[in-house]
Amino acid sequence: MDTARHNAEIEKIANLMVHDDIPTDEQDASKLQKYRDVIMRDCNLDDGAAMDMVYETLLYRKLKSADSGGLLDKGNEFGAGFS
Predict the structure, then answer these.
(1) Cα 54 from Cα 3, distance rounded (Å)
(2) pTM of the predicted structure, to 2 decimals
């Protein structure tokens, strides 16, 4: 899958999650199954790759909603290890 299609799918799934009011830190696989299934159908990916994309979408949403000015100060919240 090329980068443009990958990014478009991430944005699509992110919008679905926002519409469904799924929190950015959701980890319940049963609640995320819907998005995995959409990605599997749209992108013809296997279960593991589709689930990786679901988690990438959650990270994308978390970073997108973060205060961009505080990313260096709050880097440890995202596992970046900034000090």
Answers:
(1) 16
(2) 0.78
